[in-house]
Amino acid sequence: MKKIITLSMFLIAFSLIAQEDSEEKKKFSFSGSVDAYFQTYLTAPDNEEVSFGTAFADQSGFALGMGNVIISYEGNKVGAVLDLVTGPRGSAATFNSDIVDGIVNQAYVYWNVSEGTTLTFGRWNTFLGYEVIAPAANFNYSTSYLFSSGPFSHLGLKADFALGDDFSLMLAVTNPWDTNNISMTGEYALGAQLGYSGQYLNLYYDSGEHGGLGFEIDYTGGFDLTDSFYLGINAAYNDNDGSGFYGAALYPQLATSDSFSIGLRGEYFSLHGDGDDLPSVFATTLTGSYTIEDFIIKPEIRLDSWSNSMPYIDNDGEATDNLAAFTLAAIYTF
């Protein structure tokens, strides 16, 4: 009987230890994505001198996007996230010219001070704009002028407050615009975000000196007009000592089935400042998205047309104000 009791106690203790180990393992999570694409210009030669001028996906022929691995640990009150990227998209997003070695995209720790308050310290991707760095989280594969003109990441301290079921508030103090390591000038930037039911008003300010962004106000949101039709919206105004940019973009998206959706990005973007007739562009991007389990295929046609500027060349090598391209992207998420 003693042997049976001893054996039973051993099995119970072993079960509790195994359960605790299992719970500890559940706190770790791994995710990420890998993407590549093919791009050909319809109105210009496929060479390195031609690109839309927006961030990422700026190569012709077959090209890599990026690979990233996100490692996160979540405790009862505290946690940490490390997001490592490699490839041209990751290099451009972190302003790193090395496309081979791993690059830190995000690295931060956080503390859930209370049920409605979280402090985050480190480097994290920007709260401004509709689009993000990771291609799997965007509907369109290429990126907008508004996204390309704003910051990609911030390094600093932010506080997130849940103000009820619908309202949220974020306040941040960071290094200036896209200063991903240290602030070399002793200057800092301020950020804020007010959210209500999926609609966000974002504010950012730095001095504008030493290549800073200056002041930007940005609205990001969207509405489910039907069960299968969604309309995303982004609008922003930037000013840096009397010059900057402004623009707006609409993102209508229609789900035709569980595996296929089609979406359009229509964007108007303009520079402002001293002088009349500054350049502006209207860009239209039509994207399909076909999902097979965790694999996404995105065919895309894009046409950009500028006014008061001729930044492209045509197939004859002559300057022109418009550029069209076809892109086929493949993205795997895990």
TrEMBL record:
Pfam families: BBP2. The keyword Signal applies. This is Outer membrane beta-barrel protein. It comes from Gilvirhabdus luticola. Keywords: Signal. Residues 1-18 form the signal peptide.
